[in-house]
Structures are given as structure tokens and as C-alpha cells.
């Protein structure tokens, strides 16, 4: 069994399209996602020119905590967006 191929699909909020996007940025397992973190994964996705909304950021966080993205606390969502925007502003280019 290809655990690294299937474990992302088992995570809450992630379907085939999201997993394909994660594979495109080099995230192939739960451990990869955990190591990179939701904010950096989201930044990598945006840097590749893949058009995703902030819901993808929330979905990645929720995937790590086994929480539906819509059930994340509003202050956590705001913090994630702030981090993603702050980091992207600091990124050259």
C-alpha cells in the first residue's frame, strides 16, 4: 500500500484535487504537510500560480487538526491569513 499516496486523501477537507495540488508543490504525505505547515504550503501553492482561495489555507490547517475548515475559530482563520499575507509580502519577487 502506498501510504504516502493515500494518507492525504484520508485527511479531513482534502479531496483528489487538493491532493493533486499538494503533490505539485512536493507535499506527498501528512508528515510532509505537518513539516511544511499550512501557511507555507499555501504560499507555495500561490507561488506556483495555482488559483486557490483562503479556504485552501483553512482546509490545510483543518487537515492537520482533523477539523472541518468551517469549524475553525474565526480568530485562528484571521491569524492564518495574516501570517500568509505577511510572509508573502516578505518574499522577494
Automatic annotation (TrEMBL):
TfoX C-terminal domain segment(s): 5-83
Species for this entry: Simiduia agarivorans (strain DSM 21679 / JCM 13881 / BCRC 17597 / SA1)
Gene3D superfamilies linked to this entry: 5' to 3' exonuclease, C-terminal subdomain
InterPro entries the record matches: TfoX-like, TfoX_C
Protein name: TfoX C-terminal domain superfamily protein
